[in-house]
Amino acid sequence: MINALKSVRHLATSTVKHTVSEFRMPVPWGEMRGRIWGPDHGRPILCIHGWSDNSGSFNTLIPLLPNDWRCLAIDLPGHGFSSHRPPGVFYSFPYYIADLRRVVEALQWKRFSIIGHSMGGNIAGLFSAMYPEMVDAVVLLDSYGFLPADVKKMNTNLRKGMDELLEYEKKMDDRRERIYAYESAKERLKAANPTLSDQSVQILLERGVRQVDSGVVFTRDIRINLTNIARMDLDQSLRLQEQIQAKVLVMRATEGLTITFPQPEEFMVAIEKGWEDKNNSIVVVEGDHHVHLNNPSVVAPLITEFLQSVAPEHMSNQAAKL
């Protein structure tokens, strides 16, 4: 087990309604970073951002949640200020699950809740299926929790992902970081995510770029854009979904995932039915794929009400003794 006191550093940055600190934790290839809000012994909540975002994705939401919650928003490896994976290593969901295990072991969290956006929601779904005893509640922000792949295309996608990495490695010696003026970086991020508000773009760029002599460079690892080689088909996704013991809130945005990243309807219908069969909550909110960042007041009350309805185990035990 990683020694929590030696391996995790919290550098206080501000004191407002929530105490906010910078989170740093060593891993074999460098470090994982993020931001952590709330008191040391508050209810533990792990917040997982979406693909190509960073922990800043939760900067506007967490201050609207109860201030006695202990919310950790991490930068996944290859994102934000966290180290990139070593050369030759893929970015795929099983690796992200191992990353989360390192984090919660360092924090000595035995049981906690997860809030996951987009890809972060899919990571949350897989983690909750693999470690059902550790997760009491999950909030899926514009995410279905699983993203099934067409089994007929499995071999093609696997081959494509491997070929892309090999081609990337052939050009590594000649590859140079592209330097942008800050305003150009803002325009590039906005073009890739047109639903982001100007404020949200600036928030994500706080950890999404770093300063160099003649401008800024993006901090994310370009390898996160390569085809994901570790995918599951619908049957595998449904079997894993059955293993989840946590209560789940599925929150879909009206102008969100189904428009931004459309998927085969039969897959999404089956996954949603799986949540319904387990008596979980499914709500639709007005907004886009980043509604939790652009307009957090829409989702914060729903998240608070849901998570408060699922009392953490230690709180339930205390109540039972009274």
Secondary structure: helix percent: 25-40%
Secondary-structure-based class equals alpha/beta
What is the general shape? globular
How many β-strands, per DSSP? 11
> How is the biggest beta sheet arranged?
9 strands, mixed
What is the string of helix and strand elements? HEEEEEHEHEHHHEEHEHHEHHH
The count of helical stretches stands at 12
Spatial strand order of the main sheet: 1-2-3-5-4-6-7-10-11
- What percent of residues are in strands? 15-25%
Report, as a whole number of angstroms, the end-to-end distance.
34 Å
Oligomeric status: single chain
Low-confidence stretches: 1-16, 314-322
Description:
With 322 residues, the chain is an alpha/beta fold. Helices cover 37% and strands 23% of the residues. It has helices spanning 4-7, 93-107, 119-130, 154-170, 182-192, 198-208, 234-243, 257-260, 265-277, 291-294, 300-309, 313-321; strands at residues 9-15, 19-27, 30-37, 43-48, 69-74, 112-117, 135-141, 209-212, 215-218, 247-255, 281-288. It has a 9-stranded mixed beta sheet, sandwiched between helices. Strands 8-9 form a two-stranded antiparallel ribbon. A hairpin with a 3-residue loop joins strand 1 and strand 2. The radius of gyration is 19 Å and the shape is globular.
